[in-house]
């Protein structure tokens, strides 16, 4: 309602709908901008490291431009009313990720550790696969509401994907966290895909159950307490996320799934009490598990005392605990970056060692682009989440609303968990920064996520068809031609 | 590469990155569509001096055009006083107007109503307002629980609505205006 409600007789406001423009040309312009920025950065890295424009500049720029162009044409053809910002924002993040990975590839130190070298080429291939999946989503998912049919199948698939790393012989234990599976020489992180499938399940489930969850409650100390039996689902999801934490020792995945469920529960029921419950339960769960799980303990220890861990690691104390020096190194990287950064290619974030181009890639940006660059990147992530929430607001069906809020909430939560971990706000977790970090599963899954968001936003922003003529009015004219007024029945 | 070039590139990159963010936010600003709220009071005041100036500069032409327009929209003497819009004057929706273009307006709590009433005393399909053959607007109660009132009297049959007559549904009051 407008602000004119208090004096309605003198100030009346008219609310009329404006048709949504398609905005595809805006998207194209932003997309060209979004490809130009990483190309600039790529040239900058080459000039700083080798005093020359890198030889691969043309191929790299054309590759990224081509992929962005294909994605744009697919949106133009299959989702003409979609949000104009999602694709350029994702392209920019992906492009910046490629630059930083290529920049770390140039490091002799990382090459010697076999942690870098040809990762940028791999990442470009993963990006191509991701864009391909994005286009496939746009072509075959004509209406996001078809996903609603697969609510319970999604649940089974998500649980299957989550439990896959625990299968003996298939799961790979990489530096303490068991969230990968190994097929031949490929490692896949099924949790990244489970994120999307689980959002589908939660959206479908909560759409049906939200009235029972929202209305059947008692009020106690300003909070709505849900009935015991309605607590069931949140307890089950909490229990599963605790199981993930215990058996896969991955704090990030478990936090992401539980957080996504609480966000969607809150949006579906409008009850603040769920957030309070969620925070209490996740805190209790995390503290409980940290009390006996050594891998989690190491992470918490590195969070509370990064300098102590760094010293312990350097002095080579053999007490059976892996001491992590990365948390401190990441903080040093941010510190040496300062406000404006050292400039592309002039930092020393390769000193972080392994995972410099995956979990810790944010430290590279922090050092080479400084606070100003990190803020811009976090704002771009924020804009992606904002467009997702905006899509949820505009969506007309409750399933689409919940799915959009779940996907963008998961995206934002993942950024928070990774960035918070690298910056020392929360204990470090084994998750990847969406689009920026090296990793096939992450890039491919996040492109699919953006594809679904674009599909929902296309449906939400599509202008409503003109309403059909009122059959009542026509019928009265035909049935009673003699009367002066329409039939009151 | 000289230090100066690299510094310029470093700051230039940050500037370009922030420019992208700003452009993106501008796109969001221009993307706020969906409903347009026009303040009638403000618009009238803004237009008044303009209209006065126009009348001074070319009075005869202007008056001629205005007469034509009135005839076009009114369609004759009989509909000179026909209401052109429906205004909600009291209740949670106060301030909302709906243009009357010959279509039936349904009122109620049902989501497919033309005016969805958020009013505890309204039925889901409470009343409708429609024009008869002559363009006279009629209000009809659709068997609501708490009734529809025109001024003070509860409606039992479809009743013509006079210009400015108050239709009361629960806490909501609706008027037809020119």
Automatic annotation (TrEMBL), chain A:
This is FtsW/RodA/SpoVE family cell cycle protein. Coiled coil: none annotated. One of its GO terms (cellular component) is cell division site. Signal peptide: none annotated. GO terms for biological process: cell division; regulation of cell shape. It comes from the Bacteria. It is a multi-pass membrane protein. Keywords: Cell shape, Membrane, Transmembrane, Transmembrane helix. Residues 463-489 are annotated as: Disordered. It is found in: Membrane. The keyword Transmembrane helix applies. Its main location: membrane. The chain crosses the membrane at residues 28-49, 55-73, 85-104, 124-141, 150-167, 179-208, 229-247, 253-269, 274-292, 369-389, 401-423, 435-454. GO terms for molecular function: lipid-linked peptidoglycan transporter activity.
From TrEMBL, chain B:
Residues 38-86 are annotated as: Disordered. InterPro entries: Cell_Proc_Reg/RNA_Proc, FHA_dom, SMAD_FHA_dom_sf. Residues 48-72 have a biased composition (Low complexity). Keywords: Phosphoprotein. It comes from the Bacteria. The keyword Phosphoprotein applies. SUPFAM superfamilies: SMAD/FHA domain. Residues 105-155 form the FHA domain. The keyword Ligase does not apply. This is FHA domain-containing protein. It comes from Streptomyces bauhiniae.
């Amino acid at each position: 309602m407008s602000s004119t409600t208090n004096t309605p007789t003198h100030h009346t406001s008219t609310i009329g709908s404006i048709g949504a423009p398609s905005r595809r040309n805006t998207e194209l312009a932003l997309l060209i901008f979004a490809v130009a920025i990483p190309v600039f950065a790529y040239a900058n890295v080459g000039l700083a490291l080798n005093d020359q424009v890198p030889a691969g500049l043309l191929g790299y720029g054309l590759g990224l431009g081509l992929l962005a162009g294909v994605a744009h044409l697919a949106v133009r053809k299959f989702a003409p009313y979609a949000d104009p910002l999602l694709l350029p924002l994702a392209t920019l993040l992906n492009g910046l990720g490629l630059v930083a990975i290529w920049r770390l590839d140039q490091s002799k130190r990382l090459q010697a550790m076999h942690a870098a070298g040809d990762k940028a080429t791999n990442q470009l291939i993963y990006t191509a696969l991701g864009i391909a999946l994005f286009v496939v989503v746009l072509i075959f998912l004509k209406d996001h509401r078809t996903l609603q049919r697969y609510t319970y199948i999604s649940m089974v698939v998500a649980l299957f994907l989550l439990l896959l790393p625990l299968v003996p012989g298939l799961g790979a234990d990489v530096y303490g966290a068991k969230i990968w599976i190994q097929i031949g020489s490929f490692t896949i992180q099924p949790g990244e895909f489970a994120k999307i499938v689980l959002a589908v399940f939660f959206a479908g489930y909560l759409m049906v159950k939200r009235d029972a969850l929202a209305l059947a409650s008692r009020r106690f100390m300003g909070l709505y307490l849900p009935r015991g039996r309605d607590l069931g689902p949140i307890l089950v999801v909490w229990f599963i996320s605790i199981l993930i934490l215990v058996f896969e020792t991955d704090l990030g995945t478990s936090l992401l799934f539980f957080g996504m469920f609480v966000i969607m529960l809150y949006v579906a029921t409008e009850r603040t009490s769920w957030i309070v419950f969620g925070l209490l339960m996740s805190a209790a769960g995390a503290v409980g598990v940290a009390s006996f799980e050594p891998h989690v303990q190491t992470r918490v220890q590195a969070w509370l005392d990064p300098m102590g861990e760094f010293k312990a690691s350097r002095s080579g104390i053999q007490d059976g605990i892996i001491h992590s020096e990365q948390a401190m190194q990441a903080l040093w990287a941010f510190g040496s970056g300062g406000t404006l950064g050292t400039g592309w290619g002039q930092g020393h974030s390769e000193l972080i060692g392994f995972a410099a181009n995956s979990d810790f890639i944010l430290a590279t940006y922090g050092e080479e682009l400084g606070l100003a660059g990190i803020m811009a990147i976090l704002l771009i992530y924020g804009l992606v989440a904002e467009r997702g929430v905006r899509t949820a607001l505009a969506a007309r069906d409750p399933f689409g609303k919940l799915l959009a809020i779940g996907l963008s909430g998961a995206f934002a939560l993942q950024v928070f968990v990774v960035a918070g971990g690298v910056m020392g706000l929360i204990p470090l977790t084994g998750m990847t920064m969406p689009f920026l970090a090296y990793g096939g599963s992450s890039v491919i899954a996040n492109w699919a996520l953006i594809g679904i968001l674009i599909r929902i936003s296309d449906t939400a922003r599509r202008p409503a068809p003109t309403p059909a003529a009122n059959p009542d009015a026509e019928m009265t004219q035909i049935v009673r031609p003699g009367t002066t007024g329409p039939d009151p029945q | 590469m000289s230090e100066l070039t690299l510094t310029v590139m470093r700051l230039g990159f940050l500037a370009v990155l922030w420019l992208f963010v700003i452009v993106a936010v501008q796109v969001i600003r221009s993307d706020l569509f969906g409903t347009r709220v026009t303040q009638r009071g403000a618009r009238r005041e803004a237009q008044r001096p303009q209209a006065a100036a126009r009348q001074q500069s070319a009075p005869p032409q202007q008056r001629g055009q205005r007469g034509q327009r009135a005839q076009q929209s009114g369609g004759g003497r009989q509909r000179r006083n026909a209401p052109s819009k429906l205004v909600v004057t009291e209740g949670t929706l106060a301030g909302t107007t709906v243009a009357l273009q010959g279509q039936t307006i349904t009122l109620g709590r049902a989501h497919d109503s033309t005016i969805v009433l958020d009013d505890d005393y309204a039925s889901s399909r409470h009343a409708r307002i429609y024009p008869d053959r002559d363009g006279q607007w009629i209000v009809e109660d659709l068997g609501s629980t708490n009734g529809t009132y025109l001024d003070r009297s509860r409606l039992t049959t479809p009743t013509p609505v006079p210009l400015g007559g108050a239709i009361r549904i629960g806490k909501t009051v609706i008027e037809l205006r020119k």
